[in-house]
Amino acid sequence: MKHIKLITAFSLSLFTLIANANVSIIETDSFNQVSNTVAKKAQQYGVKNTLIVFDIDNTLLTSNVDLGGDIWYQWQTGKLEIKPTKAQIVPCLFEDAIGLLYKLGTMVPTEAQVPSLISQWQLNGHNVIALTARPPNVRPPTERALTRRSINFSGSAVAPIGEKSPVYRAMVTIDNQTREVSYMSGIMMTTGLHKGDSLKYLLNLTERHFDAIVFVDDSENNITDMSQSFKSESDVDLTAIHYTYIEEQRKKKFGAVLTQQQANTMASQWNDLKLKLDTLFPGRKNGGKCLNQ
Q1: pTM for this model (two decimals)
Q2: Which domain does 231 fall in, by range?
Q3: Nearest-5° angle of CA 34, CA 11, CA 256?
Q4: Which residues are the signal sequence here (predicted)?
Q5: Domain-embedded: residue 75
Q6: Residue 27 in contact with residue 46, Cβ under 8 Å?
Q7: What residue ranges of the chain have pLDDT lower than 50?
Q8: In 3D, which of 192, 280, 277, 213 has the Cα closest to residue 45?
Q9: Which pLDDT does position 31 carry in this prediction?
């Protein structure tokens, strides 16, 4: 059964932060709730004043296989209950491995209705954009994955009033972290920077204000970050939607987000792939150093 849960806060401390702000947090495993929320905010504030912001991985799209997908990434970075052994930790994860697997892999919509919903919101006149933790150097496979599923943010990008969407790529410092960020075609790639502050950075860059923002992400941390960033913005009604469909489906099917057997399979698949690539392209060994260092 689909479930929808209105979350006052993920924790007592967060509740204290947002209790007096125009911030709502919703947890759901269905895009039907996203659609209902957008409709409600559009009716209240108007289409042009309601911005829709999506994460990509396990929110709009999900990998066909575990290897290289968001579950694999969470496992490799120690964010799941099951941790990789020392032998299973992929070297050059950020420098080489992630980009390689993005290029090799394919993705499908998390729910069949996702592409058509986005298209309808765009036709209605909403600004609709993607805000991803992926780095700018994987933009080509990211845009390819979206395009293959008929998702295109170019026409609904946030841009200065009366101007085309900017093409932006620079080193940006947010929350004492300096990383490369890019924004073009309605997709902001943040290299893992704080998503709430990244969105505020984009709105300042384009000199845009929206009365309402609907933000959808599968990461609880990103939902918290976005809520904290807008807690003091009394003129912005933020609805942060924690989208749990993929994790809920995995729990129902496998009994957990990731099983030990699945983790071992991913490790074996990576070793097989690396061996094959190193055999065909021996220069990839690079003396044990990362290729992109």
Answers
A1: 0.91
A2: 4-64+106-258
A3: 65
A4: 1-21
A5: no
A6: no
A7: 1-4, 7-20
A8: 213
A9: 99
